[in-house]
Write a structure and sequence with these properties.
The complex is a heterodimer. By secondary structure, chain A is mainly β. In chain A, about 0% of the residues lie in helices and about 60% in strands. Chain A is globular and about 40 Å long. The termini of chain A are far apart. Classes of the chains: A mainly beta, B mainly beta.
């Protein structure tokens, strides 16, 4: 049974810091891994999708890495800004369908000005 | 242009009522989903549906039923609402192994 864990549960950093969010999964037989952002009271915004054949995926100040064999992914945020404050969720699909996602419980990030 | 849209955004209703939440996607995706986010913010899938198959998470009570009038819509019907059904419900869609897109959520409060 696939389980997804995110560490830390919460993180507070001063503006400008580089930071890393961690995600681990128990079953390495995944098609891909998706990172989302959720702002309070809002829906989920897809940030990055990293395929199982890729090791990294970049979008602006965000960089996601994937190590399937060790069951880990990291989301690196460079030069953090207060607008980055949100909950970050990672998820992996199961059952052959991309949207059948198993989510971690998220990392709540607060970037202080 | 919203990719996945849900209505209503907020729904307050009394115990025992029957309610529906609507979802539409304009992405041309084959598969749509309903998720529930509980009070601890944990997201869990309830249903996935395409034109071939409905997959129901075994933990979902049979008071919940998805109805799909066409490929672009997947509505969620809930009968005999209970206090424990209060949560945020998200609709999502996807195609093959590309990104899954989510709606903005419907906050359901049962009083």
């Amino acid at each position: 049974k696939q389980e997804v864990t995110q560490i830390p549960a919460a993180l507070s950093v001063p503006e400008g810091e580089n930071l890393v969010l961690n995600c681990s999964f128990t079953d390495s037989a995944i098609y891909n891994l998706q990172w989302f952002r959720q702002d309070p009271g809002k829906g989920l915004t897809s940030l990055l999708l990293i395929q199982s054949s890729q090791r990294e995926q970049t979008s602006g100040r965000l960089n996601a890495s994937l190590d399937k064999s060790s069951g880990r992914s990291t989301l690196y945020i460079a030069a953090s800004q207060p607008g980055d404050s949100a909950t970050y969720l990672c998820a992996v699909p199961y059952g052959g369908s991309q949207g059948n996602l198993i989510f971690g419980k998220g990392t709540k990030l607060s970037v202080k000005p | 242009d919203t990719a996945v849209s849900q209505t209503p955004k907020y729904l307050v209703t009394q115990m025992g009522n029957d309610k529906s939440i609507k979802c539409e996607q304009n992405l041309g995706h084959d598969t749509m989903y309903w998720y529930k986010q509980d009070s601890k913010k944990f997201l869990k899938i309830m249903f996935s549906y395409n034109n071939k198959e409905l997959i129901i998470n075994e933990t979902v009570p049979n008071r919940f039923s998805p109805k799909s009038p066409d490929k672009a819509h997947l509505n969620l019907h809930i009968n005999s609402l209970e206090l424990g059904d209060s949560a945020v419900y998200f609709c999502a869609s996807s195609q093959d192994h590309t990104e899954a897109f989510f709606g903005q959520g419907t906050r359901l409060t049962v009083v």
